[in-house]
């Protein structure tokens, strides 16, 4: 039976009691401790729900509010014990942790999973879920985490060779022996997870790390040269033919057309003798290698698998960034060659977050950010990713080095912050934990969008719920020339003429896009929060809280009331807005 307060909320939000009961239960279980006693019925998996593909954990959607530990953190259990309390104070619900091939198979055929078990025990004790990063053949494209017995045997495990003829410390993706050895170790790891993780603490697996060639556009060892001169695989040629008239033209098709659109031939014949053709060649081979590993693991225990990539600078050429990595220009090749890989993800630590996120979010590639910023701008990033791109989550890189949460790049010797609970990331994740069930519902319904604003882009407009919603950087009503430097906001259409808005340093106004009176005013604006999916009103906002411009005659000429929702600078806040309409 629903309580009176719940029924009151349902009436105001325009939802049925049964639907709201389901939403509330979803929210409750989304934030339940990872160490719940009852074993869930299904392992974590990706599932299409309405307009979004979501990560399903214990049978319900989950948003990863995550942080990635530094590369070798998990190799030191004593150090890891000092990290868990920090993650709790930062309001994480998921931690990304490396597990290296070298750590679990230091001698060929002899496996030790003590470090893995230590991570799982610590996560359960501290109410965290885990995403393991498998550092096998490559980490940042280099093979430093492969076992010594692999590194030393360069005859058995071939290295990449660059144009000068030199071999570099990078296992060749054309080495079948390396692929088979990596696969055997990975499958042993997955078998172990299946046997010890009945609580499903582990949500996903990142396979390798930032794969791709550096120092050259392609591998030039003997096996690679033979493959380059051989025919382009039929699967890729068929895809090119099928997408020949696609608009906008995919990058592989563009290269193919420029080279004469041949129906068959070697890689340089089909795609031209250009570095971009080398990149597609390497993308195919890396993708096939990782697909072999992922598919073998999934036959044992089908956890979702993803890759991560360094995103290329617009002026860079293959080899200056990891050639063959999953990039917007090569994603189509990866999707064809690696069907066992569920999603390809960008690491974003520079600017252009919106553009990069949008270029990786596709119907066949849900968005997750495995490595992102933890400073204040990172909070704007995660709000935007969840609201505008229906992201599965966001992870801050190197989160155990808390200096990264106050400056980027971190300065060596800088004093780590001590008041972790009040850092921008902690406050942002706290807001998103209580918003999570509502965001997930609106992602599935397609009734959510977001804006990420700065001086170069001070405003954004989109349509939602029958209104054109104008989001701009926060101004003061007594001096309209003054605007904040950056701001962000999620907007969710909650019902007829009703919206939830969450974010910081923005103001929001509404213009009707349906027949009827031309001006939208605020009937109700209240600040509050969600508790287990229930809206809890706090302050009723009015007067100076909602007046954006007191020049009312000027505003009336623009079909505006002069009022709107204003979200302040302290930390992310949430408002519920109910509109009414009138003619000027």
Q: Could you explain how this protein is built, in words?
A:
With 584 residues, the chain is of the alpha/beta class. It folds into two domains: 31-147 and 175-217 and 281-446, Glycosidases (TIM Barrel, Alpha-Beta Barrel); 449-582, putative beta-Galactosidase from caulobacter crescentus (Chondroitinase Ac, Chain A, domain 3, Sandwich), CATH 2.60.220. It is built from 17 helices and 25 strands. An eight-stranded parallel β-barrel has the order 4-5-6-9-10-11-12-13, surrounded by six helices. Strands 14-19-20-25-22-23 form a six-stranded antiparallel beta sheet. Strand 11 (343-348), helix 14 (353-360) and strand 12 form a beta-alpha-beta unit. Helix 2 packs antiparallel against helix 16 and helix 15 packs parallel to helix 16 (424-445). The longest helix is centred in the middle third of the chain and has 26 residues, at 275-300. The protein is globular, with a radius of gyration of 26 Å. The protein starts with a helix and ends with a strand.
């Amino acid at each position: 039976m629903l309580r009176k307060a719940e029924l009151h909320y349902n009436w105001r939000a325009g939802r049925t009691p049964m639907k709201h009961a389901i939403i509330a239960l979803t929210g409750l279980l989304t934030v339940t401790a990872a160490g719940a006693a009852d074993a869930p019925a299904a392992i974590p998996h990706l599932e299409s729900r309405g307009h979004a593909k979501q990560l399903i954990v214990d049978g319900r959607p989950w948003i990863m509010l995550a942080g990635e530990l530094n590369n070798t953190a998990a190799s030191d259990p004593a150090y890891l014990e000092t990290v868990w309390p920090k993650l709790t104070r930062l309001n994480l619900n998921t931690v990304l942790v490396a597990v290296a091939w070298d750590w679990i198979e230091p001698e060929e055929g002899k496996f030790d999973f003590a470090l893995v078990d230590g991570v799982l025990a610590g996560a359960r004790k501290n109410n965290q879920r885990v995403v393991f990063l498998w550092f096998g053949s490559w980490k940042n494209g280099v093979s430093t985490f492969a076992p010594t017995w692999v590194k030393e045997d360069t005859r058995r495990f071939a290295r990449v060779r660059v144009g000068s003829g030199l071999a570099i410390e990078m296992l060749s993706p054309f080495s079948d022996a390396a692929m088979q050895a990596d696969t055997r170790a990975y499958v042993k790891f997955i078998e172990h997870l299946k046997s010890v993780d009945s609580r499903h603490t582990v949500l996903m697996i990142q396979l390798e790390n930032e794969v791709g060639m550096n120092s050259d556009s392609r591998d030039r060892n003997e096996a690679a040269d033979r493959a380059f001169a051989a025919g382009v695989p039929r699967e890729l040629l068929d895809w090119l033919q099928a997408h020949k008239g696609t608009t906008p033209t995919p990058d592989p098709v563009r290269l193919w057309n420029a080279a004469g659109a041949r129906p068959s031939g070697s890689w340089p014949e089909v795609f031209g003798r250009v570095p971009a053709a080398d990149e597609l060649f390497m993308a195919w081979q890396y993708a096939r290698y990782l697909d072999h590993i992922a598919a073998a693991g999934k036959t044992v225990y089908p956890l979702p698998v993803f890759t991560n990539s360094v995103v290329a600078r617009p002026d860079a050429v293959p080899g200056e960034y990891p050639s063959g990595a999953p990039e917007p220009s090569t994603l189509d090749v990866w999707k064809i060659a690696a069907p066992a890989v569920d999603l390809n993800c960008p690491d974003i630590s520079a600017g252009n977050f919106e553009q990069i996120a949008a270029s990786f979010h596709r119907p066949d590639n849900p968005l997750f950010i495995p490595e992102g910023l933890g400073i204040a701008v990172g909070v704007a990033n995660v709000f935007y990713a969840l609201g505008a791109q229906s992201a599965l989550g966001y992870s801050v890189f190197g989160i155990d080095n808390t200096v990264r949460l106050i400056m980027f790049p971190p300065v060596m010797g800088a004093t780590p912050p001590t008041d972790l609970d009040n850092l921008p990331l902690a406050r942002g994740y706290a807001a998103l934990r209580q918003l999570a069930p509502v965001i997930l519902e609106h992602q599935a319904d397609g009734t959510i969008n977001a804006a990420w604003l700065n001086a170069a882009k001070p405003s954004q407009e989109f349509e939602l719920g029958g209104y054109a919603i104008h989001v701009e950087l926060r101004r003061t009503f007594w001096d309209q020339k003054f605007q904040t430097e950056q701001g962000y906001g999620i907007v969710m259409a909650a019902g007829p003429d009703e919206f939830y808005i969450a974010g910081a340093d923005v103001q929001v106004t509404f213009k009707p896009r349906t027949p009827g009176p031309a001006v939208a005013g605020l009937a109700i604006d209240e600040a509050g929060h969600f508790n287990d999916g229930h809206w809890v009103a706090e302050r009723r906002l009015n007067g100076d809280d909602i007046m954006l411009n007191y020049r009312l005659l000027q505003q009336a000429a623009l079909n505006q009331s002069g009022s709107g929702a204003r979200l302040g600078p302290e930390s992310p806040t949430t408002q519920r807005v109910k509109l009414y309409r009138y003619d000027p």
